[in-house]
Specification:
Chain A has 240 residues and is mostly helical. In chain A, 66% of the residues lie in helices and 4% in strands. Chain A has one domain. At the A-B interface, strand 3, strand 4, helix 1, helix 2 and helix 3 of A face helix 1 of B.
Chain lengths: 240, 164
């Protein structure tokens, strides 16, 4: 039975080092590059004909566009329009990473906590900068709700500070954990299918069902990551 | 788990930054404006068509209104022509009737004059015949010519008695 952790192993393809920092081109980087190429190809080639009545590919591209635009409009409002390219890129990058991971034998870069944390911390820092840029020191009111009795500050402020600073971690861990656990389950079930021989049909049927579920989770987690980023952006722009 | 091996944090973060920024630039500068333009163009075309439809509808309504106006105008015109004609005809008929009446009245008057003259003439004849008859009768009965003046008076009295 194959080691279910094996699939998460980073394998350097082109070893690189700049100023003592390892920046090797790894299997993880390969998938990221593939994701960029796929997303760009999909979104540019599909609208190449600029059809008034869209074809299959073009309507898919339009659905993605309008889905994220609608999400941003509903959660942030018109002030969030200039962050649309970022939110869209975030969604497409996470979604493609999740879905590419469902290709047998492929590496899933969203199953690496450092990758998800890298995106989460960018969202967190970006949102904090936007908050202070828009509201100045008034943004600190985030940590103490308007109208609460001053005596409660002792309890409320630490809670709010902790909840604010745990945002990037919850965002990163949610995606990473979902992807990692899903892939481990798939690998373990696949191992059972091989190990049980003829009786492997039972775990095989289960494997089919879990694969469908994992596709759902791949899309759902991309959605969750994006909508939480939108909600944080809303907090920064409109406060509570 | 390989995920928690710090040895691979740096290369992953580096390539994450590279690919994510590349994708961001490609989305922001190429893909999203393209899709947005397609969507805008469709929206504009739909709006255009709706506008055009509204315009055509307004034109059709204007045409209907013009048609109805022309219809009512021509109806009014026809009405006035008919009225005028009938008035003219009525006036002509009245005039002709009046002329005819005048002519007839004249003719009646002339006829009456003629009848009156004929009657006078007839009455004179009657008187003369009566005078002659009375003179002859008196001469036959009395033998000798009767007094002319007395005869005339008697005849006149008799005629008067007869109511003529």
């Amino acid at each position: 039975m194959a080691n279910p952790i094996e699939q998460f192993k980073i394998k350097p393809i082109i070893p690189l080092e700049v100023g003592g920092v390892d920046i090797s081109f790894t299997n993880s980087a390969v998938m990221m590059v593939i994701a960029v190429v796929l997303v760009t190809a999909f979104l540019t080639l599909s609208v190449r004909s600029r059809a008034l009545v869209p074809g299959r590919w073009q309507s898919m591209a339009e659905v993605f566009y309008e889905f994220i635009a609608g999400m941003l409009r509903e959660n942030v409002g018109s002030a969030g329009r200039k962050y649309f390219p970022f939110i869209f890129t975030l969604f497409m990058f996470v979604l493609t990473g999740n879905l590419l991971g469902m290709v047998p034998g492929a590496f899933t870069y969203t199953s690496h906590v450092i990758v998800t944390f890298g995106m989460a911390i960018v969202v967190f820092i970006g949102v904090t900068i936007i908050g202070f840029a828009r509201h100045g020191t008034h943004f600190l009111r985030m940590f103490f709700p308007e109208g609460a009795p001053i005596a409660t500050a002792v309890i409320l402020v630490p809670i709010e500070v902790i909840s604010y600073f745990s945002r990037p971690f919850s965002l990163a861990v949610r995606l990473f954990a979902n992807m990692t656990v899903g892939h481990i389950i798939l690998k373990v079930l696949g191992g059972f299918v091989v190990a049980l021989g003829v009786f492997g049909v039972v775990p095989f049927a289960f494997l089919g069902a879990v694969t469908v579920l994992e596709f759902g989770i791949a899309m759902l987690q991309a959605y969750v990551f994006t909508i939480l980023s939108c909600i944080y952006l809303h907090d920064a722009i409109h406060m509570h | 788990m390989p995920q928690f091996d710090p040895a691979f944090f740096a290369p992953q973060l580096f390539w994450l930054a590279v690919t994510f920024i590349t994708l961001y630039v490609l989305m922001a500068k190429v893909a999203l404006p393209k899709i947005g333009a397609v969507l805008d163009e469709r929206q504009r075309k739909i709006d255009d068509n709706l506008d055009k439809a509204a315009q055509l509808k307004a034109e059709a309504e204007a045409a209907v209104a013009a048609y109805e106006k022309a219809l009512s105008e021509s109806r009014a015109h026809a009405h006035s022509v008919i009225k005028e004609a009938s008035e003219r005809l009525a006036k002509q008929a009245e005039e002709r009737t009046r002329e005819l009446n005048a002519k007839l009245a004249e003719q009646i008057k002339a006829g009456e004059t003629r009848i009156a003259a004929a009657k006078d003439a007839a009455l004179n004849n009657v008187r003369e015949v009566a005078l002659d008859v009375a003179g002859a009768t008196v001469a036959r009965l009395v033998g000798g010519a009767a007094d002319q003046a007395k005869l005339e008076a008697a005849v006149a009295a008799a005629l008067k008695e007869a109511g003529q």
